[in-house]
Amino acid sequence: MMKLSKNREILFLISDVGRLLRTYADQKARQFGMTRAQWAVLLKLERHEGANQSDLAEFLEIQPITLTRLVDRLCDNGLIERRPDPADRRAKLLYLTPAARPLIEKISAEVEVLADEILAGTDPRAIDSVMSQLGIARENLKQAIAGKTSQEANKDVKKYG
């Protein structure tokens, strides 16, 4: 059996951790009668209240039609409301309802507990380092998806960074 390189091993590990994190977050969200995707919408909207659906979909990196279904459900549950956009008659802006605020506090607290559980025993300095390195990897991936080579991306960082 061929031994995997460290680079391949870490990619598999990152993928496994991401998959397990999504599974665990799904379990936690179900305790609130929600989905992880609904949690994400509420938490992102808290930061970008008054955004339109297109912008919120972009922030969440999901398709607008997917977000529409999530927003519909959250509106039906009285957690989000659509308001007319004064600058565009066709558009609606999204706002949290007063009923959403205590739920978001509970969700935020649960996310902190989840993070503490997942990162238990991890050196805080290592977390800073891993975050920095994963940030670089994320930017490399974004550049690769955009069709740029690592050298082109590094030139952009030096040029604009």
Structure overview:
Helix 3 (53-60) crosses helix 4 (64-76). The mean pLDDT is 90. The protein has helices at residues 6-30, 36-47, 53-60, 64-76, 100-118, 124-145, 150-160; strands spanning 80-85, 88-96. The relative contact order is 0.08. Helix content is 68%, strand content 9%. A two-stranded antiparallel sheet has the order 1-2. It is mainly alpha-helical and 161 residues long.
Would you spell out the secondary-structure blueprint of this structure?
Layout: H1 6-30, H2 36-47, H3 53-60, H4 64-76, E1 80-85, E2 88-96, H5 100-118, H6 124-145, H7 150-160
Antiparallel strand pairs: 1-2
Helix pairs in contact: 1-5, 2-5, 3-4
What profile does the largest beta sheet have? 2 strands, antiparallel
Helix content: 55-70%
Structural class, by secondary structure, is mainly alpha
Total beta-strand segments:
2
Number of helices: 7
The rounded Rg comes to 19 Å
> Cα distance, first to last residue?
43 Å
Overall average pLDDT: 90
| Spatial shape | globular
